[in-house]
Structure formats: structure tokens, C-alpha cells
Specification:
Blueprint: E1 2-7, H1 13-28, E2 34-37, E3 57-61, H2 67-78, E4 83-90, E5 93-98, H3 103-116
Antiparallel strand pairs: 1-3, 1-4, 2-3, 4-5
């Protein structure tokens, strides 16, 4: 997945780079495979193409089961920083998170996860799944 941070209007490139590195450190605390500064994007004048780093960009590799933790970490991290948005892209699908937590943003996260994380397999063991209803409308032991 690719992650791109966009700063506020008054953010400078050095500040955005520092925030990107801070978020990278937070993500590395999760059980992800890697989080690297993204070495793609426009190449500044006099820079060698191999040295170009897109400021605010991370390439993150994680198992699908960790994706929810990654998105929740990014969303909560944004709330305390002067970063306007974080865009997460997997293939052609893109999710934009903003620093303000809202039910609408959580719905977007849930929909994004539904497209990229397979649901857990249904349990074939009834002892681990739902129990048959007793028909009297009361819980056992009530």
C-alpha cells in the first residue's frame, strides 16, 4: 500500500518529512512487513533518480489482517498533527483520512477494509458459533 501525507497550507517540506518519519516509526510498532520512505515521485534538479524521495510518501507492506490496525493508527496519529490528510492507496483503490475523527470517516475505513480484507471463515463448530434460540426470548440463566 502507498501512503501519502499532505500538510496544511503553512507546512514546509522539512516539517512534512519529519512527520512522515514519525508516522513510519509508529507503523513499525505494528506487525507489518515494512514501511519505507517512498523513493518515487518527481526528481528535484541536480538529484540522482535513485536518491529521490517523495516527501510525505511511505510504501507500506503488511498482511491484510493488519490493515485495520494500520488504518486506525494513521487515523489517530493524524488527530494530533498539523497534517491535512493521509491518502492510502491499494492498487486503484484510494482512501483519504482526515485528522478529524467522525462516523463518516469510520464508515469509509470500514468500506475500504471490506474491499481489501477477506472476512474471517465461518466456524463449522456450533460450540464456537451462535447457539440455537430457545424460543422463549430469554437468555440462558436469566
Amino acid at each position: 500500500m502507498d501512503l501519502l501525507l499532505e500538510g496544511d497550507a503553512d507546512s514546509d517540506q522539512e516539517e512534512l518529512d519529519a512527520f512522515t518519519r514519525q508516522l513510519r516509526e509508529r507503523l513499525l510498532e505494528l506487525e507489518i512487513v515494512r514501511a519505507e520512505l517512498n523513493r518515487s515521485g518527481a526528481v528535484p534538479d541536480r538529484a540522482k533518480p535513485g536518491e529521490a524521495i517523495a516527501v510525505g510518501a511511505l510504501a507500506v507492506t503488511a498482511a491484510p489482517v493488519v490493515l485495520r490496525s494500520v488504518l486506525q493508527t494513521v487515523a489517530s496519529w493524524l488527530g494530533n498533527r498539523p497534517v491535512r490528510t493521509a491518502s492510502i492507496t491499494i492498487g486503484e483503490d484510494r482512501l483519504e483520512l482526515q485528522g478529524v475523527s467522525s462516523d463518516g470517516q469510520q464508515a469509509l475505513i470500514d468500506a475500504f477494509l471490506a474491499r481489501h480484507v477477506a472476512p474471517p471463515p465461518a466456524s463449522a463448530d456450533p460450540a464456537q458459533g451462535a447457539t440455537p434460540a430457545s424460543g422463549n426470548g430469554t437468555a440462558p440463566g436469566a
